[in-house]
Amino acid sequence: xxxxxxxxxxxxxxxxxxxxxxxxxxxxxxxxxxxxxxxxxxxxxxxxxxxxxxxxxxxxxxxxxxxxxxxxxxxxxxxxxxxxxxxxxxxxxxxxxxxxxxxxxxxxxxxxxxxxxxxxxxxxxxxxxxxxxxxxxxxxxxxxxxxxxxxxxxxxxxxxxxxxxxxxxxxxxxxxxxxxxxxxxxxxxxxxxxxxxxxxxxxxxxxxxxxxxxxxxxxxxxxxxxxxxxxxx
Length: 233
Prior knowledge:
single chain, alpha+beta, D-Maltodextrin-Binding Protein, domain 2, 2 domains, six-stranded mixed β-sheet, elongated
């Protein structure tokens, strides 16, 4: 009788194990609205890029697990194997293309200035912004700070730890300008109800391609994602 029970248990366990889905581990900063952010009310990550990678995982039969990373440690965390793929407003850069595998472009945007509403004309160009009396604020580790460092010679540049603080600095008048992607600038204009405004969002200073980053040993997963993304309606 014990043998029969043991045999039955083994037979039942086999299909259960086979049905377990492979887990896709995804790194994201959770601080880049409207693409990725942590929603305290629900205790979950939300945003357009979160929806995108979740849809991919669901369609391809993966379970999904999110890991929080930061802009300064994003690439290092991917290289260290903390996650298989990273998403959430990630710009295509030469360095990232050397360190990781990058997907097809999932969205296009460009760097623009975000300022307090009513001051758009005052900060209507790089030259107007790059003055000794202007303070620019950027988050550490991303392409926003890289852009500001490359363009500014005279303005004061403040670097803060995360991508939420620049907006507080603008609200509190501790800074005048933040350079960011038009996606984020337009979103902030919409949600701040006339407090923050994007300057010429249809005329960005740069062209930026947003991508998904994959670990170097995930070439098959990259191809799978690219095929899936390009086949979407």
